[in-house]
């Protein structure tokens, strides 16, 4: 009886360990001297030019989710907020279901700055 109880307990603990959620990706954030609408539009264009497929986009909420079907599978979540000629971009990414370091998103943000004509 004790060995059976131990086996059930061990199996339960093992399965509980498998259900541990992965941490959310840490976002990279940057401000732009451009309207939120223009920033969102150009961000979508940058993602599409890089081969991403836009799965969800909501202009009113300023949100975009894009995926790259190349192994191991990349997912980018981008949010634009702001008013007038100021916008704030927050972008995070995961690869194979695991969060990517925020600094890996810098090239994407630099390309967005370039498209908006904000690079020196």
Proportion of strand residues: 25-35%
Number of domains: 1
Main sheet: strands, sense, barrel = 6 strands, antiparallel
The CATH architecture classification is 2-Layer Sandwich
Strand count: 6
Low-confidence stretches: none
CATH topology label: Alpha-D-Glucose-1,6-Bisphosphate, Chain A, domain 4
- Please state the overall shape, judged from the principal axes of the Cα atoms: elongated
User: What letter string, H or E per element, gives the SSE order?
Assistant: HEHEEEEEH
**What level of helicity do the residues show?**
25-40%
End-to-end Cα distance: 74 Å
How would you state the average pLDDT, rounded?
A: 88
Global Rg: 20 Å
* Number of helical elements: 3
Q: In terms of structural class, how would the helical and strand content be classed?
A: alpha+beta
What features would you describe in this structure?
The protein is of the alpha+beta class. It has one domain: Alpha-D-Glucose-1,6-Bisphosphate, Chain A, domain 4. The protein contains three helices and six strands, in the order αβαβββββα. The chain has helices at residues 2-18, 36-49, 106-115; strands at residues 28-32, 53-58, 63-68, 74-83, 86-95, 98-99. Strands 1, 2, 3, 4, 5 and 6 form a six-stranded antiparallel sheet that branches. A hairpin with a 4-residue loop joins strand 2 (53-58) and strand 3. Helix 2 crosses helix 3. The longest helix is centred in the first third of the chain and has 17 residues, at 2-18. The protein is elongated and about 70 Å long. The relative contact order is 0.21.
């Amino acid at each position: 009886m004790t060995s059976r109880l131990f086996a059930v307990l061990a199996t339960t603990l093992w399965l509980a360990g498998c259900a541990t959620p992965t941490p959310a990706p840490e976002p990279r954030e940057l401000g732009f001297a451009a309207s939120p609408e223009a920033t969102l539009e150009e961000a979508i264009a940058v993602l599409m030019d890089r081969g991403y497929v836009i799965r969800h986009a909501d202009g009113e909420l300023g949100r975009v989710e894009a995926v790259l079907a190349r192994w191991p599978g990349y997912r980018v979540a981008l949010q634009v907020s702001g008013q007038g000629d100021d916008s704030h971009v927050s972008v995070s990414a995961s690869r194979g279901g695991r969060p990517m370091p925020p600094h890996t998103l810098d090239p994407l943000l630099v390309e967005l700055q370039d498209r908006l004509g904000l690079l020196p």
